[in-house]
Amino acid sequence: MPDRQARLAVLIDADNAQASIVEGLLGEIAQYGIASVKRIYGDWTDTRLKGWKAALLENGINPVQQFAYTTGKNATDSALIIDAMDLLYTEKLDGFCIVSSDSDFTRLASRIREAGLKVYGFGEKKTPKAFMSACDKFIYTEILRDCSSVNEPKKKVTKQKIQKIDMKLLNLLRHAIEDTADEAGWAHLGSVGQNILNKSSDFDPRNYGFKKLRDLLEESGLFDFKDVDPLAHNSGVQVRVKRKRSYE
Q: In this structure, is residue 78 part of a structural domain?
C-alpha cells in the first residue's frame, strides 16, 4: 500500500539519553512513520533515571528493567540489542530508531540495514562517527532539545561563516548537486538531499540553524534555483551551482 505509514520500533538507551529530548524525539520520529514499539532500557532502581518517569507515562514508552549485575559492564546495551534482534525477526517493521550516543550499537545498526530496514539514529554530537555512519540518518539530540526548549531558537549560521569557515560543508553541498545534475547542471532538490544523506548520515540543515535544505543553500549565495511547473513530468524545485564563481 503506497499510503501506508512505516512502522518503526523506538529503542532508547536511558543511560545515554536525557528525558528533555522526548517531545522533540517523538515529533521527529513522526515524520518518518508510526512508533509501533516504544521501549526504553535502564536500571530503574538508579536515581539518575528518575527524570524519565513522567516522560514515560505521558508518551506511552514502556520501561524495560535491566539490573547492572556487574560494575563496569553495560547490561542495558545487551538487553536493547537482544530485543532489537527479536523484533527484527518477529515483528513486521519497516525500521528502527535507536536513541543512544554509544558506539556499541554500531553493529546492530549495520545488521538491521542488511535486513533491508531503515535505521534512524539519535544521539549527541559526541557520538562516535562509526555509529552515525551505520545509520541511514542520524539526528543530533541537541536539535531535539532546542525544539522542546522555551529559549530563543538557535541562531542561523551567517553567509560569511558558511563560506569562510565550513568549506567541508560547501563541498558536500556542491558535490551532491553535481552528482545528481542533468547536462545543464540542474538537480532536483530532493535528489540532492538524498545524495547528501548517502554521503553523510548526520547531515541536517538544522545543525546550521536552518529548517530546510533550501534555506541553507540560499543563504550561502552560491546556488541558483528554479521552480518547475507542478504539471510537468519532473516537477519540484531544482538547484545548480552558480556559474563563473569559485569558492574553493
A: yes
